[in-house]
Every structure is written in C-alpha cells, then in structure tokens.
Amino acid sequence: MRRDKLITPEVANLLRPWFSGATVGAQPVIHDAPAVLEQPDHAVTLTWRVGSDDPHDIVIMGPRTQARYRLGQPGRDCLQLRFLPGRAVDFLGLPLRELADRAVAAADLDSTSLRTFVQAIAAGGSQVASQSHAARLRALTAALPDAPSAHSDRAALRRHIVAEATALLSIGDGVPRESVHRVARRLNVSERHLRTVFADGTGLTPSQFVRLDRVRAVLTRIQQKLPEVSTTAGYYDQSHMTAEFHRVMGVTPSAFTMRRWPTTEACTADRKPVGFSRRAGSG
User: Fold this and answer.
1) For residue 236, what is the enclosing H or E element?
2) Signed CA dihedral, 24, 25, 26, 27: sign only
3) pTM for this one?
4) Cα-to-chain-centroid distance, residue 35
5) Mind listing the pLDDT tens digit for each residue in 52-101?
6) Is the N or the C terminus of the chain less surrounded, counting Cβ atoms within 10 Å?
7) How far is residue 252's CA from residue 247's CA, in Å, rounded to a whole number?
8) DSSP bridge partners of 150
C-alpha cells in the first residue's frame, strides 16, 4: 500500500483489503500553480468532505480520463480513499464500466458494505475537529467488511485477472510495461475477455488505463528533462509523449511546466454528483 502522512503501518494494514492509499485535499504537481488541478486518475475513489455528517457529501468518483482545471481555491478539504484494482466492484456491488468520468452519490448505490461504511463516516463527521485525520481513518476501518474471498470462484478469478493485469500494464521500477496482447497470454485469457473483465473491474479499457498511467508518470517527473521522461514513462519517443499528454491534459508538457494551463471552470465545492443510471445489486 502506498502510504502518506495520514497512514500509519497499522492503518495501512487495516485498509489494505480494499484501499491502496489515502489523501486529503488536492495534491499539487508544481509550485505556484495558476489553478486547481484535478489530475487524470485510473483509480476509483471514495471521497467525502471533512467534517460533514451529510451522507450525500460522500461520493464515489470514477476514473478521470481528462484533467480538469479550476479557477480559485479548492473548497473544504476532502478525504479520499483509493480502491485497490478490482476491489471497488465487490465494495460497491456493481460493475464499473459506466463509472468513468462520473461522480455518484454513495447514498444512491444499493450495497450493504458501502451503506455500512457511509453510515460510519456520517456518524463521525462532527467528531473530526477533535480527531486527527489518521485517527479518524483508524476508527473507520472498524466499519470495513472482511476481505473478499480468495477461493476459486468466478468473482475471485475476475479480481485476480484485474489485479494481475493492472500490475503488468503499469510502470514498474525498471520493469518494462507489458502489451495488452502479452498480458492476455500470460493470464491465459483472450484479449476480448481481458477487456471485458478489466472494464468491469476498473471502469477503463486496458488501453485507457495505460494512457492514464503513462501521463501520471510524466506528471510525477514533469520537472525533469522531457526526453528522459518520455523514455522512463514508456513512450516510443518525445513526440508520442507530447501528443498523448496533450490529449489527456489539454496542453503540451512544455506549456504545462510554463503554467500555461487551460483554466476554464470556476472551482466550487458544491458541485452535485451525477446520478447513476441503474441501481446496484446488494453487496
């Protein structure tokens, strides 16, 4: 699990069956940014406003395939939990293929696991002033369901495919990224089946996941020399990186580092989430 200052090793272990990390507020990419940046993200996240006891302030955020730039300062801090690849399906009780670029009120989803966790968040909202974020997270872990079964049933097999494919399609420490074709062969499934299971488990196609993973790798290295960044991030060359970065971020890497951002939206903390098109089955 990726840890930050919110998470002690103990809390990381308690969250690990479901979540890979936690953050509070926007994470700046560069200093003196001209706007609030919502980074592209291949993860599904559970987000809520710190200090709120309103269940409708608890939102499931699908993968974000495009960067968003907002004028002004961000609103109240939000605490965000990132689901492990493939785990949001079990927690939310629905496939994720319709969730990309959408925000869904947690109260609108019919999942027992989610409902219990939402009630715990709302019940403790008024206590946040007397608790650190780390202490609040630790208290909330008591409301998490047990880890999903590791037995060889259909759901477990699909979780395994998503987790393994995500790891193989991601940038590793000096390990080349696998192609979708090679990932399917290694997992002993067809490419079509891999795409179906992957979309249900992450909300993205494998190709979309790779695109976002590469762009996120560039963002973490944006202050380095761009030719080196393009190689490290897994691009064919710098022109390939520039084109894909522009597609996702709306500007080229050079324009981004020079802070020529396409700010087009006013930042508001009260944006209503988009409703989901169908009810989920009980989880």
Assistant:
1) none
2) negative
3) 0.84
4) 21
5) 778 888 999 999 999 998 876 655 578 889 999 999 999 998 889 889 99
6) N
7) 9
8) none
